[in-house]
Every structure is written in C-alpha cells, then in structure tokens.
Amino acid sequence: MADLVTFGETMLRFSPPDEERLEIADQYDVDVAGAESNVAVAAQRLGLEATWLSKLPDSPIGRKVAGELRSHGVSVDVVWDDSPERRQGTYYLEQGRPPRGSEVIYDRAHASVTTATADDLPTEALEGADCFHTTGITPALSATLATTTAELLERAGSSGALTSFDVNFRSNLWTPTEAKEVLTELFPAIDILVVAERDARVVLDADGDAEAIARKLDDEYGFEVVLVTRGSDGALALSEGEAFTQPTYEAPDAYPVGTGDSFVGGFLSQYLQGEPVQKALSWGAATAALKRSIPGDMATIAVQEVREVIGGTTESLSR
Amino acid sequence: MADLVTFGETMLRFSPPDEERLEIADQYDVDVAGAESNVAVAAQRLGLEATWLSKLPDSPIGRKVAGELRSHGVSVDVVWDDSPERRQGTYYLEQGRPPRGSEVIYDRAHASVTTATADDLPTEALEGADCFHTTGITPALSATLATTTAELLERAGSSGALTSFDVNFRSNLWTPTEAKEVLTELFPAIDILVVAERDARVVLDADGDAEAIARKLDDEYGFEVVLVTRGSDGALALSEGEAFTQPTYEAPDAYPVGTGDSFVGGFLSQYLQGEPVQKALSWGAATAALKRSIPGDMATIAVQEVREVIGGTTESLSR
Amino acid sequence: MADLVTFGETMLRFSPPDEERLEIADQYDVDVAGAESNVAVAAQRLGLEATWLSKLPDSPIGRKVAGELRSHGVSVDVVWDDSPERRQGTYYLEQGRPPRGSEVIYDRAHASVTTATADDLPTEALEGADCFHTTGITPALSATLATTTAELLERAGSSGALTSFDVNFRSNLWTPTEAKEVLTELFPAIDILVVAERDARVVLDADGDAEAIARKLDDEYGFEVVLVTRGSDGALALSEGEAFTQPTYEAPDAYPVGTGDSFVGGFLSQYLQGEPVQKALSWGAATAALKRSIPGDMATIAVQEVREVIGGTTESLSR
Amino acid sequence: MADLVTFGETMLRFSPPDEERLEIADQYDVDVAGAESNVAVAAQRLGLEATWLSKLPDSPIGRKVAGELRSHGVSVDVVWDDSPERRQGTYYLEQGRPPRGSEVIYDRAHASVTTATADDLPTEALEGADCFHTTGITPALSATLATTTAELLERAGSSGALTSFDVNFRSNLWTPTEAKEVLTELFPAIDILVVAERDARVVLDADGDAEAIARKLDDEYGFEVVLVTRGSDGALALSEGEAFTQPTYEAPDAYPVGTGDSFVGGFLSQYLQGEPVQKALSWGAATAALKRSIPGDMATIAVQEVREVIGGTTESLSR
Amino acid sequence: MADLVTFGETMLRFSPPDEERLEIADQYDVDVAGAESNVAVAAQRLGLEATWLSKLPDSPIGRKVAGELRSHGVSVDVVWDDSPERRQGTYYLEQGRPPRGSEVIYDRAHASVTTATADDLPTEALEGADCFHTTGITPALSATLATTTAELLERAGSSGALTSFDVNFRSNLWTPTEAKEVLTELFPAIDILVVAERDARVVLDADGDAEAIARKLDDEYGFEVVLVTRGSDGALALSEGEAFTQPTYEAPDAYPVGTGDSFVGGFLSQYLQGEPVQKALSWGAATAALKRSIPGDMATIAVQEVREVIGGTTESLSR
Amino acid sequence: MADLVTFGETMLRFSPPDEERLEIADQYDVDVAGAESNVAVAAQRLGLEATWLSKLPDSPIGRKVAGELRSHGVSVDVVWDDSPERRQGTYYLEQGRPPRGSEVIYDRAHASVTTATADDLPTEALEGADCFHTTGITPALSATLATTTAELLERAGSSGALTSFDVNFRSNLWTPTEAKEVLTELFPAIDILVVAERDARVVLDADGDAEAIARKLDDEYGFEVVLVTRGSDGALALSEGEAFTQPTYEAPDAYPVGTGDSFVGGFLSQYLQGEPVQKALSWGAATAALKRSIPGDMATIAVQEVREVIGGTTESLSR
C-alpha cells in the first residue's frame, strides 16, 4: 500500500561540526544521506506513504541508516547483507564558505548495495504502488545496480506504477559519456524525468533554454513530465505539451545538500495525489527552500511549513 | 498484524550530561522514555511486530517522541492532539552515584495522553494482535486513563489477545491504597501479571517469598502467568502452577532506568512465540542486563547480543 | 535598598544547538528566560540594584533559575513552592532562518508562579524601592496572578515607587480583547507604560503614528512616560508632553529574543538615576542592539559596551 | 549581616572533558575554584549567609568568577582591579585514574589578588560577622597577602568574629619551613584551626596520632577548636579539651578536589549555629562525601541531601 | 637518522562518545589508530627518533592521519596516493561494558596502503636505522602488502637494522592457517618476535606455558628475542637462552585498545638503547598500564610517568 | 636544511564556542596561536620546510603547543623550560559581531619565552636557512627578547639568510614611541619589512599613501622588499624600486585572527622559491582570504586551494 517506492544507496555522512575542517576536527557529526531516501523522507513528511528499497550491511551501522529513515515514518524494505565483505558506504562533507569551497569525499565503492539484484530485494511494496523513483546515481554505482535499476523500472511499470527518475549526474562516479549511454537506455521506461539544466547540457547534449531542453528530451524519449531544475533560477515542468515555470523561494545557502531531492519529494507529494502540475511545482520549490535552512541531507519539515512558505505567511517569531 | 500492542505515556527525558547536576548543567541530553514504549522497543528488536498506542501533542516535540520510537521499528499509532492545551509530558533525571542519590522530577501532569479515551485512539492494531500490554502507571495518570485502560484491556481480551500488565507502582503518582483499589479491579481482565516483589508487598499486601507472593496473587485473581521481579535477586514466574526461577546476569549499575521494562520486553518476545517459560525468563533477564550497560531508557540491543549473554559467549573485544 | 524590583515568571528555555530542529536534536541548550527577570538583569548590569520577585518550585530546577539570575548580581526574592504540584514553567525555542520561521512552544501552564498571591511573596524589597516593574505577561498567566499584579502595583505606588509596565502582548496566552480588559484596569496604577507599536494597535485600539499612539494613551490614562517601541524603526518616548525619538543601532538578527526587555532595562538604568529621557532612550536602544548579538534571553553586557555603541567607538578587534 | 566571611584567591580551572589528557583535548571545561570560596559556597548552601572577600581583574574573566560564586547565593565583595597588569589566576587540572596520576598545573603567580591589601578590600561585611575564615594558601601567594591575612585576622577578632583557618599546605607554593614560620605567627589570632594530619606532621612537626597532634597544637598555641582531617580515616575535633571523632561516609574517588573545603563548610554551617561539635563533624563529613560525587571544585548540594547521607536514607532512585 | 622505523596501516577510528551505541550516536569521536604507528608514537615519546612508513590517500582525511602522528613527533614518510580509487581505511569501535561486549567493525579493505609496494615507499629512513618494526596485520591486508612486508624486512636486515615483528593475529582478516603460512615464511628474517600467548597457541600451534612457547619458537626459527605477552598475566622474554618475566602493573579496563602496541613501544624504547631485557620489559609493562588509562589508540605519555609507575611513586594528586 | 626559520611566542588561545560570551561559557575551545608560528604553518603547508624556534614550559601545556605545530609539519626547535616559574602564555578571544566588538585579553606576561636568550635556543636550523622571520611582538614581550631578537637577526644575516620582519604593532604591549625606538634599531638588519599601513602611520610616522609609505621606509632604512598591508584594500610591495599592488580576494569576516600572518606565509612561500613579487603577492592574498574562512589562528590550507582562489576556479560543491 505504498504511494511511493524509492530505490538507491543511503550513506553515512561524516561532517566536522560548525565550519571546522575535516583535517582538524576531532568529532564528526554523523548523518544519513541518500538521494532516493531523501526523496522518500520529504514525500512521507508531506503526506505520502513512502518505502525505501535497498541493501544494507547487517551491523550497527546498517541499522543506524535504517533507524534514521524509519524515524521519519518511511518504511525500510531492505536485504540485510551478512556476508563478510558487507560494508556501509560513507561520505565526508566539509561545508566551506567562500572563498573556501565545500568538499565531498565519497567512500562508497564496494558498499553492500552495489551487489543488490532485483531478485534479492524485498520488492513487495512495488505491487500496487503509485510511483517508483530512483536516480542516475544508482546505475552509476556498479554494473549490477545498473541492471537492477533497469529491472525495477520495468517491474514498476508492469505493475502500473508511474516511474520517476532524477538524472543526478555525479562526475565522481562516471563520465558524461558513460552516463549518457546507460541513462538513455533507461529513458523509455521512465514517465517522469527530472534533470538539472546543467546535467542536461553536459550529459544529454541538450541545449537552448530550459523549455527547449524539456521539449527536446520529450520529443526524443517521450515522458509524461519533464522537470528541469535550474538552481536559483527556479524550475520548469513540461506536461502534456504545456510548460509551467516556478521561481525559487528565498532561501539561505546554509545547507544546500539535498535541495534537489527535497524538490522532487515536494513535487511528487502533490503530483501523485492528482494535484495540478503548477501546484506540485510550488510544493517542490517550497520544500527545497526550507531544506536549505535545515542541517543534514533531509528535509525535516511539516506540511504547515510548506504551506506558509507558499502563502508567504511564515512568522519570524510567534509567541 | 501486530504481535504486541502496548499503551501508555511516553515522556521526553532531560538529563545533564555525564554526572553533572541538573542545577548546574547548561545542556541536557534529550531522550524518549515510557514504560510501555520501552517494552515495545525491546520486543520489536527481539523479533516481534510491536505497536505503541498513545496520544501525542501535534508539535515538533510530539513528533520527536514518535520519531524516536519509529527508529527502532515500532509502529506508532497515536492520536495527534492539536488542542491549545496540548502538552508533552517530560521528566528530569539526574543520575547520581553514592552517596548522592539519583533524582527524578516528573513533569507529566496535564500531558495530552491524560485525556485519551478508548474511542479517541486508533486501536486497529488490536484486531488480531497476540498480546496487549500496559502498566500501572497508565491508570495512575488520570481518571480518564484509568477508564481507558480498563476498556482497552477488555477490548483486547474480547478480540482474543493475551493481556499483560506490569504493576509498576510509582509513589509520585498515587498512594499504595489508591493503587491497590484501581489495579485490583483491572486484575480479572489480565492474563500475565508482572510485579516487583517490593510493589507486591507495599501495594498488594502480599507477603512471604517470591513464590508465595505469586501463588497468593494467582489464587486470588487467577492469571495465566505471574512474573515476580526481584531486582538483583532475579525473577520468578508462576505458570500453570509451576514456579520457574531465573537469576540475574551480571550487569553494571550504570543505566538502571528501564531495566524492568526490558525484562518484560525480553520475556514477551519469547513467550508470545510459544517458547517455554524458562527460556522466556532467560531472555528477559539477559535483555535487562544488557539494558543496564546502555544509556537512555530503551534497550537498543540485537538478538545476537541476548544470545551471547545467555550463552556466556560475549567477547570483550573481537577483531 | 533595591533600586528596581521586578515581578513575573521566569522559565527554563530549551533550544536545540546551532540551527538544528527541536524534532531532531539529542541535546537542548538550557537557558533561563523571563521578561521581568531579563529587565532586572540588564538594569543590574548597568548599575542599578535589582531584585526579582517570584515563586519557584523547591527543586534543582527552581534552584537553577535562581542561580542563573543571581550570577548576574540580581537579588532573588522568591517563595519556594514545596507543594506536590509544584512545577517549573518551560518553553522550547527553535531558532529558524528564513524561509523557516522560529518556533516557540510554551509549556508554562500550572507553573508554581501561577499560584503566587501578594501575601505569599517576600515583598520587603518593595519598601523604599525606586521602581516596580512587571509586564502584561504576568496577569495573563492566571487569574491569581492578575490579582497579584494589581495588588503589587498598588503597594509599590503606596510606598512611593514608580511603577513601570510593559504591555508585552502574547497571543498564545490570551486574546486582544481579554488583554485589553485586564490591562486597562491596571493602567491607572502605572507611571511608565511601555508598549510595542503593534500591540498598541492590536490590543489597545490605538492608531496613527507612534507619537499619536503615545499621546492618545497618555490622554486616556495619564502616565509619567509612555514608551512606544517600534522594532527596527526605533522608539519614541512621551514625557511631560514632549516626544523624544530614538533610532535603533545597527544590530544582527541573530538572537532577537529578549530585545525588548533589554531596551526597558537599559532605559530604566538611566531614567531611575535621573538622567534625561533622551539619554535613557539611547541606553535602551544600545542595550537592545547588543542583546541581539548575544545568545540566550538576557543581556550579558557591560556598561562600557553600551557606552561604546552609543559613542560609535566599538573596535572590531583590539589587541 | 554575614554569618561567615571568607578571604582568598579563586581561580579559573581548566580541565579536559572526560578522561582526556590536557595535551590532547581541544576543549577545556571551565570551572571556578578556590579553597575559601569553596567553603563559602558549601556554608551558604547549608544555611549560612556567606560573603567572599577578594580582588578580581575587571574583565569578563573576573566577572565570570564573581558570577559563578553569586549563583550559589554567596555575596561577592571584591575590589575590581583595572590596572594594566590585572590578571586572573588559573589552574589546569587533569583527572587521572591509576596508574596515571592527576595533574595540577598552577598558573596563579601575579594574579590581581596577590596585590590586595587590607585597606583595598571592601571589608564592611566583617562588621558583625560571626566568623572569618581563610587558609594557608592565601599568605603563601605573596608577601602582600601574608600581611593582609594577618591584618584581616586581627580585624575580625577585634570585631568579635570567630577566626577559622585551614592550614592547606601547598608544596607548589612554598616549603614546609617557610610555611611553618608564617603560619605559626598567625596562630595566636586563630580560634578554629583545621589541619590535615599529613600537613601537621610535615609542616608543624607534630607527631603521634590525630588526637596527640590536636592536643599538642592546642597546648602550644591555644585554640577554641582544633580539627584534624585524616582523609579516608575520618576526622577528629578537639574542643574544650574533649576529643570527638568522625569516620568518613562512603564516597567515590571521582571528584576529590574540594573535599576538604566542603568538610570545613559543612562543619562551620553547624558550629556557627551553635550545634554540638559532634553534629558539626557529621555535617562536615557528609558534605565532603557528597562533594566527591560532584564534578568541579564546589559542593553543589542541598541541606536535604546532607541529612539523608547522615541518616543513611538516600534512595538510589525515587520515582 | 631514525632509531626506529615502523611500517603498516593507520586507520581513522570512529567511536561514539561515552558509552553510547554506534547505532544511536549522532557524533563520533575521530581518532587515528594503527598497530605500527602506535608503536612509533610510544617509542618516540619515550626518547627514540621514530619514523612511520606507509601510503595515504592524498586528501584531507589522509592529511589528518599524518598530522596526528606528527603531533607526537613521529616522522611521517608516506607515499601520497592520488589515484581515483584512493581511500582511507577506517574502523568503528564501540566500547561496551559487561555484559555488553565491545564491537569492532573494520572498514579497511581497498585502502590506499593495500597497494603499497616496497619501491613505492620512501624508505630512506631505513638506511642507518637501528630497528624496523611491523606486525602480522600488514601482510594480512593484501597480497601486495605480504610481498612488501617480506621485502622491507629483508632490506632492513641488509642495512644492518634489527627487525621486530608482532604477530598480532586478527581473525577478521584471515584464518589461523593462512596466517601461519605467511608469517612463518617471514620468521627467518625477524630478530625480535612478539606474540600473544593466545596467538601462539591458535596460529603457531605452540603449547605449554609461556616459556615453553618462547623456547619452542626460538628453537624452530631462531630469534634474538622472543617476547610472549600474556594479557593480565604479564609478559615473558627469552633472550640468549635466558627467560625474564614481568608482571603487569595495576591498570584500568577503561581503554584497552592499543595496550599491546604500547608494550612493544615501551620495550623497544629501552632495548634499542642497550638497556637490559628486564628493564625493557618493565618499561613495556608500565607503558601498557598507562595506556589503559588514556582514551584513544595511542600512548600519550611522558617519560616521567613511566618512571613513576615503575617506581611506584605516582601521586594521585600533587599540588 | 630549513627554508624558513621563525622565532616568537606561541600562546594557548581560549575562546568560548559559537558566539557565547567568555563570562558565560562553561567550555572554552583551546587553540594554539602565535604570529610567527602562524607564518611557519602557512609556509610549510605551501611547500617550504619551516622551523619554529622558541622556548616552552616543560609541561603537558607546552607539549600541546609543540604538538599542534608539528601536526602541520613544522619542525619545533625549542628549549624546554623546567624552572619552577615556567609558564605558558595564553590569551582569551571572544569573537563578537557588530555592534558587539571582539575581545582579546592577553595573559602572556612572564611566559617562559620571555626569558629566552640567543644562547639558550637550539639555533642549528639557522645554518643554511633561506630566511629568518620574526615580528615586532617578540621584542615587545621583554627586554631579554628584544636583545635576543637583535642577536638572531644578526646571526641569520651572517649565515646568509634573508631576514623578514612584520611590524605587528600591539598596543596592549607597548606604546608607539617605545615600539618605534626598539624597532627602528632592528631595521638595518632586516631585508623584508612587512608593515600594516595603519602601523606605519601610528608607529613609524609615515604618511601619504601605501606607496609613499613604502618608499619613505625604503629610503630611510634600505630594504630588499617593503610590503605594506592595507586590510580590505589589499597590499603593496616595493621591490628594487618598483611598486606592485594586489587587491584582496573576497573573503568572509568570520575568522579574522591570523589573516596577516597567513599573508606573510603565503608571500614567503613563493618569494623564497624565487617566484616574482607579483605572484608572491597573489599567494599571500589568497592564503589570507582562505584563512578568514577557517576557525582558529592558523591557515589549515592546501596548495590546491590557493591555486583555485587565484584562478577563480573554486567550486562551491563538487561531487
């Protein structure tokens, strides 16, 4: 009875507190972070029943990942890996402020999830789900996962679910050429495509403005919705030939990681309930804006807060 | 499809870090603590499907309580209180070491849960549950909750669930006389009675040794199991006329709060799966012993750890 | 021999560290916060002898409140409540940054202070005091406190003290209509009225600009001074028919809670020493500006710092 | 109207958190610590009106010391040193556990207090005080302070106060020979002498058991009370020729610093109220035992806790 | 001009603060930990010039490892790995207390060091070094490292250095059979063999008491010194046919990780300076005892502390 | 074989966490801070072999200073002071935000280093060094250090090293007149003079713009390079009669302490390797800009980061 099933890797994230450097800090904050579970968390908090599908090491570290996601109400449907080689993917994040850049060091190779096949996974939640969502990170992680992604997209489609896919190009994982080859093979199975304008240019060789990009992708592959995210310039959705635009809401630069996932979670929370595209876009944008004020990868928000951002009724201090 | 449904109040718990005094500390650790949710957490971690039934304020604080319990896998079935008077019960715990005592300051009067009626609560999980569990704290919290407790015991019994009840006398909430009057009225509806030897003497006027106490209570009220807990002296269960004893496993004094609840959770995790009383007792004792090495109110344990304590195979450091 | 006696509730304040959410944080910073004690602290640090009058639970938590205020040099004259129902009022503060609002959750109902009568309180310090100050929060907390407030204002007046009152409307405690009814009955006993421009409009049905508001209130009720605070637009004082204005000093948005109380403390610190209204206003504004750079509710400042803000001589780093 | 006036240096104390080493830790806990202020704090918390007399740098650091002592209710009567050479004495404490020793690094030379003369100090509280207390640390800190100590003892005696003096030999500050010369010159002005058995042997050339030591000192110098503290062996008081002994209460080794000061504070709290020597000894011993369970230098205790230790009625956990 | 060169892997170590569980903690303490660098640190602090040889990822994380070791004065001679696959090995340590065991989760597969060949490494320090030390962990990490270990032992021997080797069997890395095969091939190149009594039995099929084990190993492979460590039962050294025994010094269980490495570092610090075996043993034992009172993997000690442990002159608190 | 030898005092620095006040905080962050060691750290991290020369107390606190500097790769050549009067200089830093200023309280009088003579110091590294650097703080600390500074400048010059000197006027240590007298006597021995424009005016009576100042100083004393730093207005270097200017790179106000030292370290890292003055200036400016984004006194940077700032290629988040 899930409304939304997402599939992908979720990592432990290590960050030095405050603005300390990774090299210097003696304590790291430990968070849980994954593009697809971020989407599930945002969507769950905004009213959907969300399930996250994955493979985790059978260890306190794997249980930590599961527990954090569950605490947001997400159902965690995972294979527990008890092989001797099991490992939890991690990444190090050092938040800079200009002129110092932020630093991301992935340590996710050989993680348990990279060996997950479609048959391993407890995919019961796919039956009857409204939507299946994953991202371009997943097939980039291993050849096995590329196959699994394709298979799950197919199964989801067969069982009547919408399929949603965020390109999410990661240059640390593969080249644009590799990405294009794998991803475009998946496109025919995808209903909702999310792509950052920059990724569309770099990976998918699209050009022109956001609308041109969306129309080109739609022409070429045929989607129900193409959603082009444009950073601080907002977003554009192409649906049934009509283009809808959405500016960003004012938001801080404080906690940028996870902004895009929150956008998708907010969008799907409305779109899957049959709300108009324009409304879904505004929920996506408001969720993304709120995320940027919240530490960590996930949008720990409430429905009421999204409504206030959209309505412009947030009070700075109410007592 | 819950195996175990528990009902009661869960509080926020504020404790100064390390051994600092409440009066001096500038930061408090924030935990989530409730006798019945503690039982649910222990049981869930040991293999049951557990649901916790309650009423919480519709606020970040109430959501915090729900989130923490969910992180252990427990299903949280609550009414969200959005009345202007909604409040989250709290307590302050200062952990002393002799000659300084530990200090508990309850601040739980007027909490949202104290107004919960049986009809308010989302009791769907009771249908088909194997067991319903609550404690003597719940009816002590308000007249409304005394009624609700009686009604839920009845409903649980009617729908074929075992009913389990831990006397858990709290002298800060009521007098022994008040407690006895209310509790003994509930006893006919109860299948499994858990009572600390001291409470049995003080509240229920039982005397003699643990077995005598169990037999007396059984004679008087008729239970499927009477479980008498005896602190560091172990525990005794009376089942179908037969007495089973269980010594404690060696355990530190470090984190005593929640020991009894962990015992019950460990016991039920086996008893409800049809395991013999003696085995269930050993799981209760091992879970309780492990709890005493773990900060907070809850037994954040794994099945494997319980097995090792019982088998005496815990390695102090394995690498 | 107090110069200033203030009366009201002081709460424990729980806030997540940094910008974390209340729902997520595992530690809360614990501060001490109350409109009237905030005024006492600011005034004491700026040279007055200040006494804070209240009722506190006889517990480590109550002692914590007393100790924090004493550390600033304020005399703490309280009744210690040792009834079984004693409780310390608290509030939760989550500091947001746009688009996320800040969140205040009061948990102050049934606090010990709500039962304080004028006869309970150790009011010796009122004898010979120069000034008695309280706020509109106090009578809003309980019917008992409304009576107590009236009685203390009368006693203070009788013993020759100036009476000062900050309207401080709190929509979480009562409606504008309720507030107006209770407060305007107190006005005849008040010499110095402090009111936020917004509260004057919402609660006291005043309109026009700040000066018009001040003159209307003065005409209607007759005050020695009417002080209208206007947030980032500064403040206006009406004294003996003459209006004095004061712009704000540049200040961050970082720690807004307690700004208004610091203004009053700074103003009174000069006014009660016979300094001109214009000078008192500048001390109020400088104290308020400094407060906004300091964590917590209270203005932990030094006289020298206020002088430097007024003189524009603060050095960003002197060594 | 002080009951007890103490005089001496109070330092900032820097300690690494937990059991970390000074060399490694990146944060130090900051406490306030001084033999004489420790006595004042214990006595104030146990019912006396205590005043602490000293000289502090006029700086945030000096204000920190004053604030911490005030938070316990102690009156802080100090000269504020605004000379360019003003400095706050500090010490570093690393708490070891065997076989690693604890480490104390004093950094107290040239502190503001070392220049305090009797005429500098605001000694009004001495008028009408019941008792004046200082320790052998004070005259060891500088020649000026040795003179000041003598003068204050004399003034206190002249104004009718009892004079109390704890030998408190510190080998880091002077040699036994130096100490003996200075201290024995002060003895004629002292009514209550407190001395550790070990110091009596090392500094005062006393031998025999505690009673022999007390009698010898009394014979030689003539005191109203001689109090010999014996570490874990308890204490002995000689008063009007009669010896009273007191065993220690069971206590942890956790936080030993300040044990002796707490003993003196507890003893004086009763002795100055006219309670029998034996009772005063038991209050001293109980206060000292409680101190050892409390982080920092000071006995943050309540009267009730002392009573429970003496009565053996402390409950490990009451709820 | 190094006295001692060690070679091996050094990991980042993540531990929850205090006694929290890995699954629950939101912050991990970050330490630096490796058997061979632990030896280098202890030896350097006790007077040798120590160099640590390894391969580290060219990243803030790799620099963190280097910086921590350098802070103890150790020379860090490493190849900086800037390949895309570079990674820093880590491990998770959860410190339990009985009945809860401690938990070690290695995440060190594929670390940069596993690809280090003898020709990669900057081995200049080996020229003229007095001693080269590594452990059985190193060849267990990869086939490449097994070869490198053999080669470095040979080079060290050729250049006239003593070779020291600690068997350090890790069951998470290989089986006893695998270990035996690889290690015994290295033995002919080794002068000083260190082996835990348990490892000697499990891996090397030795039996009898410690002396019998030492003699058997010496007979079979011919060493200059065989050092058998026996946990809390002390240690035995066989040197030129003579057996020397050393009991342990009293020490806490608090921080056991790194005890064995500290023993070796303490032993070598004396042995390499030509001190008698018996004295070297006592330095080993004292260093090991001190380590157990110090958080982290490394012995952050001073020469004076070792002397005091051996002399029994540690003062619990000196001031 | 050092490229750069610096000489001066390094202090422990105590700061309250976040924006808390020194008076209120219960923990202080502990850093290591000194103008000359800051230069050494920046230069070492940017490719030079740097040595820091000084005198430290033989204590855990002195070892802490040495360890922190070593962790950056700097060689620490110090006399260890084991006299009873040994002390470690410290300073308190409270970071304000307007209108609250930052506060620096020095506690460095009588530090061990103030007694260091040229003959005490282990100056071997000066032989063959490329450059010797110190600042105007050093001779201001004591008469002994003024002599030592002069002597080391002379020795360095004699052995063929460039001498570099940063005026670094500290009004808390001496008056402009005192500074001028001492410093101008040192100028003949100096090759590279660094001076803040403001110090040039206040201390050296220079006027006109930066170039005029540089030319005047060059005319009067004859330097190889005069480097005038101008805060946010950039810097100017005069070399062989030619003036080079450098604007600042955009940087936050967050962590200003140490900006100037980082500039010098960056400049020297290139200048000493024979790079053109203009390039050296850009490295100075980029290093300074990065420093302002990094907590503490030291520039914990990597060469790559400096290159990216200069090239404008820093990515805000790369993954």
TrEMBL record, chains A, B, C, D, E, F:
Read off the PANTHER family from this record.
2-DEHYDRO-3-DEOXYGLUCONOKINASE_2-DEHYDRO-3-DEOXYGALACTONOKINASE, SUGAR KINASE
Task: Cite the GO molecular-function annotations of the record.
Answer: kinase activity
Q: Start and end of every Carbohydrate kinase PfkB domain?
A: 1-297
The reply to whether Kinase figures as a keyword in the UniProt entry is: yes
Keyword Kinase present in the record's keywords: the answer is yes
Provide the family line: Belongs to the carbohydrate kinase PfkB family.
Q: Which UniProt keywords apply?
A: Kinase, Transferase
Species the sequence originates in? Haloarcula salinisoli
InterPro entries referenced in this protein's UniProt entry, alphabetically: Carb_kinase_PfkB-like, KDG_KDGal_kin_Halo, PfkB_dom, Ribo/fructo_kinase, Ribokinase-like
Full protein name: Sugar kinase
